[in-house]
Amino acid sequence: VLSIPKSDLPRGVVAYSSGNHGQAVAIAAESVGIAATIVMPADAPPLKLAATRGHGARIVTYDRATEDREAIALRIAQETNATLVPPYDHPWTITGQGTAALELLDEIPDLDAVVVPIGGGGLISGCAIAAHAISPGILIFGVEPETGNDTALSLRAGQRTAIPLPETIADGLRATKPGALTFPIVQKHVKDVVLVSDAEIRDAMNFLLLRMKMLVEPSGAVTAATVMTRKLPGKLTKIGVILSGGNADPGV
Amino acid sequence: VLSIPKSDLPRGVVAYSSGNHGQAVAIAAESVGIAATIVMPADAPPLKLAATRGHGARIVTYDRATEDREAIALRIAQETNATLVPPYDHPWTITGQGTAALELLDEIPDLDAVVVPIGGGGLISGCAIAAHAISPGILIFGVEPETGNDTALSLRAGQRTAIPLPETIADGLRATKPGALTFPIVQKHVKDVVLVSDAEIRDAMNFLLLRMKMLVEPSGAVTAATVMTRKLPGKLTKIGVILSGGNADPGV
Q1: Which of B215, B246, B251 is closest, CB to CB, to A251?
Q2: What distance in Å separates residue A136's CA from the closest CA in chain B?
Q3: Cα B141 to Cα B110, B114, B148, B194, distances in angstroms
């Protein structure tokens, strides 16, 4: 973004996101001096709302159960002549999120596997493409909350399958259906999808905070929960764990 | 330690420490399979006691106000034929703690300054010697809690000066007098000592946890507090901040 001439930048950007993507778009917009509007659920954690606002973005909230965040974001983009940056199911965001696996393999090249959270599927799609480009034999595992198992069900059914809005503490992984663009990538690249319970996620967050000194949000800690509960095949010895997102309330 | 033949290892080790040094000795002893006894204040945070115990060490507690931890540790060492590993004022611990600055400068060689907490003075002595060996022009700043300013007073007086047991949330920095071995090193290598209040330490801990996602204990966060309150000379642009210790209760 920083190498784009100012005149070629969009007038503004709009994103809908329950957290990390919104903050990423807000930070990017702030860094190049354009306006950002982030559409966030009204029941998003106050910390996420504050952090996004802290990067100069305008926040528009919506009701997760009755409103369509995508439609709201599209309308704002049209009204303000801004560019919509979707959180998943778009080649740009898949590419950008895949840099997480690039960084991981850059530091530790000989991993047997990489474990990635699945919300909409953008992070795991990008990570899987990047990891397999560098290391074709590496195994990619996805993780979903037990109640938010739309990708696990879809893989079993061989087609995108919708579920009701899931209840889980992993609020960033409450997607109801895999993305149209990401699902074929997941089908091709992902070895298996593991499910974890809210209790297992809480245990992992506690371990990460108290022993590893890292504040990781529930949606990001699902991967640590997978490894700690030994839900991956036993033969793997070097497992890369992507901990995505730290928008957690330490008191919880 | 790991390259020492088993027959040359001590029968056991004893350390007195309010936290990190005790855990370090416990981990080292566990890794080579010898017994560790750690003498800790009875009012140390439960998390510190549990973490040290978790590495297989025996814990002996003492009353900070009335008992002499060094005498207790010496007696245990004599009774059990174990080796005492002092937390500061010993060439081995100064050398070991100096590796923090080695790691920092290995990652970022062109620092203008390094900021280090001062408890007994071992960490800053080792870091100062290591940093000046690599980069003679680098400035070393120490940080003490406002109430625990024994080193600041001693530098001004030109000799080791004792203070009453200080009250501060930085429980790892409650030394009452600089070390005999470390004080001349501090005199020679440390540019200045900065003081921070408990409120400034709390603000820094909050920032580190909520924005940088790192759980740092009060004694470790004093350095971040120094930078955040702009207490260092204005011309410095690249400042290395040593965050030492994560034995904090996230609720606090």
Answers
A1: B251
A2: 30
A3: 16, 6, 16, 7
Interface test with B, best of A48, A53, A213 (most B CBs within 10 A): A213
Stated pTM of the model: 0.81
Q: Smallest Cβ distance to B209: which of A51, A211, A215?
A: A215
Predicted local distance difference test score (pLDDT) of residue B45 = 79
Q: What are phi and psi for residue B141, nearest 5 degrees?
A: -115, 140
Q: How confident is the model at residue A239 (pLDDT cuts 50, 70, 90)?
A: very high
Closest CA–CA distance from residue B55 to any residue of chain A (Å): 12
- pLDDT at position B2 over 60: no
Q: Which of B202 and A48 is assigned the larger pLDDT? A: B202
- Nearest-angstrom CA–CA distance, A160 and A23: 28
CA distance B209 to chain A (A): 7
Q: Count the Cβ atoms, other than its own, within 10 Å of residue B217.
A: 27
Q: What is the pLDDT of residue A4?
A: 66
| Mean pLDDT along residues A71-91 | 91
**CA-to-CA separations, A146 to A117, A163, A183, A191, A224, in angstroms, rounded:** 12, 12, 19, 18, 15
Within 8 A of A51 by CB-CB distance, chain B residues are 211
Q: Does A46 touch chain B (CB under 8 A)?
A: no
Interface-testing mutation among B48, B212, B213, B216, with chain A (most A C-beta atoms within 10 A): B213
Tokens standing for residue A7: 């005149």
Residues of A in contact with B244 (CB under 8 A): none
Q: Tell me the percentage of chain A whose pLDDT exceeds 70.
A: 97
Given an 8 Å threshold on Cβ–Cβ distance, is A251 in contact with B246? no
Residue B215 to residue A213, Cβ atoms within 8 A: yes
- Residue B128 confidence (pLDDT): 98
Structure-token pair, residue B242: 């040593």
pLDDT confidence of residue B1 = 36
Give me the DSSP letters along B50-69. HHHHTTT-EEEEE-TTT--H
Residue B198 to residue B151: CA distance in whole angstroms? 18
- pLDDT tens per residue across span A151-168: 999 999 999 999 999 999
Cβ contact A250–B209 (<8 Å): yes
Long-range contacts of A24-32 (CB under 8 A, 24+ apart): A24/A96, A25/A57, A25/A85, A26/A52, A26/A55, A26/A56, A26/A57, A27/A55, A28/A1, A29/A55, A29/A56, A29/A57, A30/A55, A30/A56, A30/A57, A31/A1, A31/A2, A32/A1, A32/A2, A32/A4, A32/A6
DSSP secondary structure of A120-166: SSHHHHHHHHHHHHH-TT-EEEEEEETT--HHHHHHHHTS-------
Distance from CA of A215 to the nearest CA of B (A): 5
Dihedral through CA A152, CA A156, CA A162, CA A163, nearest 10? -60
